[in-house]
Amino acid sequence: FDLARNPRATVRLGQFKAPLGLQEVTSSGDQEFVDRSVASEAFAPSRQQGAMLWGTGFGKKLGYEAGVFNGNGRNRKTNDDTGYMYVARVHLDPSGEYKLSESAVDHPDKVNWTIGLSYMLNSTQASLLKTAEDLKQTTGEAFFGLRYKRLFALADYYSRTQEQAAGAPDVDSAGAVGQVGFFLVPRKIEVALRYSYFDEDKDTSNDREIEKRLGFGYYFSKHDLKFQADYGQVEDEASLTDNKTDVFRAQLQIVF
To answer: What is residue 110's predicted lDDT score, i.e. its pLDDT?
Structure first.
């Protein structure tokens, strides 16, 4: 729940999405594809228990979120290690409020765009090694989103460094997603393209997960009533056999 006396400084308490990952903080019901990208799934912390201060100012052209969380995932009654997760996000919306929703289903007559940065510091106990050593994980994100008339586009880049136990070298990971959608018929029929990857260890060759998709959407009533389908290929470079999987997905969404 929110303690909302001032739009520049609102306190949020409970279990909710930590503010990292542009696609993750966008509702699953407002996505352009059936599911989020492989990069978003790999890096975004999703729902956590914690407390956050957030707000907007300057006519909703500038916004921020900063919070502290248990960092051990959803539906955990207690913090099961000695560390916490700290997350901060800042975004600039020069054309006015940028609502967290994919596609240009509203057909805006003016360019509506956002750009921003997020940062996460997480400390986890190396429980599998039966040590009390706190291992720090840092994640950075840079994101961009745009809507204009029939066009929607987003770009998102992630970088993560994970400390290893017993002085072993850090593991550096990276990932990105690029996505663009265009309405063939304004507000009704949309096609979209997505490319995303997750590189688990930048120092290791042939260990990336790569996603390429083509999407289709028919919007009966914006995101409240829509049909979505997408087809693509997910490649696991680390797999020894059959490392390319063809995937088709479809859904009818009804929100009421």
So the answer is: 96
Taking the alpha carbons at both ends of the chain, their separation in whole angstroms is: 22
CB 118 within 8 A of CB 88: yes
Q: Tell me: the pLDDT tens digits for 67-116?
A: 999 888 888 877 777 778 999 999 999 999 999 999 999 999 999 999 99
| Contact status, residue 234 vs residue 217, Cβ threshold 8 Å | no
Is the Cβ–Cβ distance between 30 and 102 less than 8 Å? yes
Query: pLDDT by residue (tens digit) across 174-207?
Result: 999 999 999 999 999 999 999 999 999 999 888 8
Q: Which two tokens stand for residue 183?
A: 């309405």
- pTM (2 d.p.): 0.92
CA-CA-CA-CA torsion sign (88, 94, 96, 100): negative
Distance CA 31, CA 24 (A): 10
- In 39-133, beta strands by DSSP E: 47-57, 62-69, 85-92, 112-125
What gap in Å lies between CA 139 and CA 160, rounded to an integer?
A: 4
Residue 239 Cα to chain centre, angstroms? 25
CB 62 within 8 A of CB 104: no
Residue 197 to residues 8, 20, 21, 205, Cα–Cα distance (Å): 36, 17, 14, 14
Write down the residue that tokens 């957030």 correspond to.
54
Q: How many CB atoms lie within 10 A of CB 250?
A: 11
Cα gap 127→171, rounded to integer Å? 18
